[in-house]
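Weekly sync notes, structure subgroup
Attendees: PM, AL, DS (notes)

Item 1: joint prediction request from the bench team. They want all two components modeled as one assembly rather than separately. Inputs as received:
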Amino acid sequence: MISKEEVLQLAELARLKLDESEVAGLQKDISNILEYVGQVSKVEAGTTKEVPMNNTVMREDLPAGTALGEREELLRAFPKREGDYNVVRKIIQKDE
Amino acid sequence: MSNLNELSITEASTKLAGGEITAVQLAEACLTEIKKRNKTLNAYLEVFDDVLEQAKKADALRQAQGKSAHPLLGIPLAIKDNMLIEGRTASAASKILENYVATYDATAIKKLKEAGAVFLGRTNMDEFALGGSTENSAFGVTKNPHDDSRVAGGTSGGSAAAVAAHMALGALGSDTGGSVRNPASFCGVVGLKPTYGAVSRSGLIAAVSSFDQIGPITKTIGDAELLFNTIRGKDALDSTSIDTNQYPARIQKKVIGIVRELNATREMFDVEGIGQKYKKAIFSLREKGYEIKTIDLPSLAPALAAYYIINFAEVSSNLSRFDGVRYGLSIKGENLFDDYAKSRGEGFGPETRRRIMLGTYVLSAGYYDAYYSKATAARAQLRKEFEEVFESVDVILTPTMPTPAWLIGEKSDPLSAYLADAFTVPANLTGNPAISIPVGTVDGLPVGIQLTAAHGDEQALFSVGHALE
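Output from the run, pasted for the record:
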């Protein structure tokens, strides 16, 4: 069984805020699921050459999209907009 | 004549072409049924307010085009809520995208628009296509049209319920681990998952990019074929999409493969009466001149585990784009980290959060080799076994689901829900096309039989499918 601390650590890595009340349930569910999927340990890795299902495909370097109309629609989706700018939190903060 | 909404696409198309009915009448018939049943079933999250206008345009276009009109011109369809239609909401049944408005058309949608199809609305699904019963929707479960105490299946549960309840003539769903075939089986309709890459996924909200494929949900196999042929094809906007001639054409052998390993798990479906349907399908194909061949697929054993590891891993990376910065739900916290964690914590539902955490786990240093790299090895091995099997058979026949539709809330333990995907996930791991075909009922509930074919050989699915239909 994975620990409560591990659950909280995973949530932090995944940028998820959890309710305190969820943690015990997640501990149980994640442990059960990991135990089940852990049966892949019996698979011998590297016995079959992994052939990629598709190759990397490069597109022609051409302009696409309908510049202005689409732009306004994208701007409209901003959670906080000022003019044509998306207002985001200051990333670099003072050391304290 | 029966109600117009009860017609198949092909039947309606013939009547439209013959001038017997109009697209407006068809749309009205569907809207009337939606008004009657959607409140209970919750198949549609939104019914578009311009359906009749779209239908009027289709009727006008028919006047202009005459006999050259596309067979889908004026056909009313339902679209899963994870496909973008320009100017309309596409929420993937998630609170994090509840107010997201698409800025462009998905390629499959664009092709349907060019054909002149009418879009009725967007259908309910498990949030971000993670689940198998539509119980993980942020907007309530979709109920099964045959028994509203039961689920419609998932993740394309709304699309399947809409078609089964005649609230649409056909629908699009998407299939990551059975999400088209599972609800098709539960609702008693046809569901096709095409070959990986056959249909462009540009404009499909990504769940698991190496599995996802858009597919039709319809009343008949002929309808599935028509929709598939309309939306398929290589697309510059999806580098994984393939040409129709990517795989060499195959000659039908009239040989059906049945899996020896299924005998070991026979009790999984025998008790439910699904085993009898399975045997009956085998018997009826034999009657029709098909040879039945027992095949070995030893790598089916770890397939479900491998599927879920890859699912978690890709979900955790695909959904990392939802951070509340550029679009979607955005909740302000005490600092930047808090902004992300709160937006994602409140925006994603429980199953989505669980899978993101599991994906984070299996991809983390120290666990990667034990999980992800083992899973990809199992996947490669299974793909090889499938390729070998298809040298001697046209299709592999299995049940679609181990049970008929379960009661709402019955599978509250997530692992027990995952286990129900055992028959459907192999085709996603290997990229093969597969179809679920309704074969009657067990205890009054519909069940489906699944056929899986070689890469690029959807034709074999349709051809054997017709023999079963």
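Discussion: The domain at 4-41 of chain A is CATH 1.10.20 (Histone, subunit A).
Action: AL to compare against the crosslinking data before next sync.
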